[in-house]
Amino acid sequence: MLALVTGASSGIGLQYATQLARDYHCDLLLVSNQEKELNRVAADLAATYGVKTVPHFADLSLNDAAENLHAWCHENGYVVDILINNAGVFFFNPYCETNMRRIELMLQLHVMTVAKLTRLFAEDMIKRELTPEEAAQRICGRKRKRGYILNMSSMSAWMAMPGIQTYNASKAFIYNFSKSLWYELQPHNVGITVMAPGAVDTALFGLAPNLRKLAVNLTVSIPPERLVKRALKKMFRGKKADTPGFINWLSTPMLKHTPDWILFLAQKKLAQFMH
Length: 275
Known about the structure:
The chain is 48% helix and 15% strand. By secondary structure, the protein is of the alpha/beta class.
């Protein structure tokens, strides 16, 4: 199988590429706007796991990025079995102080590019006919589908949080878009899964090591390796959506009823990350 992973040169995208190669023996089409890092990752994964890797440098925030990437795959004969829409950006800033280009970049990358890539590659998957050998193949205990799509949302999709208003709105689009498409694609034997994690255990927010460890133990935060392992299993098993962590899952319905004083306190605490 060939997996296309966006944002594959670092972070969670690199984890997706690594685990798809290591655990599922997938060939990889790796897409990123970090050309040097991308080429190094592609070479390392090919050498380590013996899979074919193709690095493709692209800026997915451009208006025609999805169409160009899809056309490039067709021109080069790449048949994508798995699409991982992982590329994304994050910033904390008051909306009226945010540069217009940054707003456009986030919305283009999280909304339009995800929607277009899903549309283009899902159509290809729907038209595909599996060989008898492929149809008999089982992945994570389930029969192989014609294709798989995994989109990355966030728990912030349910939050009215000042400072990340564009981010959480775009993640809400991804979540509802993906869940709705699950019903449309099911009759065609094509799977789509959306992951909505809470905090991911990285150094992004500058927490002390003991606090990071506590957050992981409480399942409020999840290590990137564990997140990706879980996400791929959910995808291959045909799950519609998933929010890792019992506390996160339990608190999701309450997020939209968060008292205003908590939101203002959070805004004050997060202000240190404003640029």
